[in-house]
Write a structure and sequence with these properties.
The protein is 27% helix and 29% strand. The protein contains four helices and seven strands. A seven-stranded mixed β-sheet has the order 1-7-6-2-3-5-4. It starts with a helix and ends in a 6-residue tail after the last strand. The relative contact order is 0.26. The C terminus is likely disordered.
Amino acid sequence: VRLSVIDAHGCADRVTFRPIEPGELPTGTWDAVVMVDVLYLLAPEAQQQLLAAAADCLAPGGVLVVKDIDSRPRRKAWMAAVQEAISVRVARITVTADGLHRPPGPELVEGWMAAAGLETAVRPCHRGHHVPHVLVTGRRARPSDELAPRGSGVLGLVHLCTAWLSEAGGT
């Protein structure tokens, strides 16, 4: 999340960034948890553990958003794998505790979300891009008498960093 974008939307007073340690899991209750390009940096068991913890943090009506790399189309997936290998192993602009791993794929992420009780949707986002991005969302059901989520705002996980965006300025 770029600070200029946050400033432009008038919510800079409600944003705090904090790096997290490898293996640390989200806590609290959130209206949304957003993971961008995180899962492929984790071992398969850690991928599922992080996703389950994020789903557990959702307030009723809250949404879990995961943007990662798909394995299709194969040509784009291969180009993305080469790009990430260079970013991690050569340029060292992406940091990971234990190397690169295969992205779990949207079907697996959707299955993990469904197992956590979330209503899911998958949307490919690669048209016009060289990387096969995919967006998987899961929404926690809310009681019919509840109008809005009641969490602390938005928890974003981006390259193993955590950002809080909340009404109260973070928790």
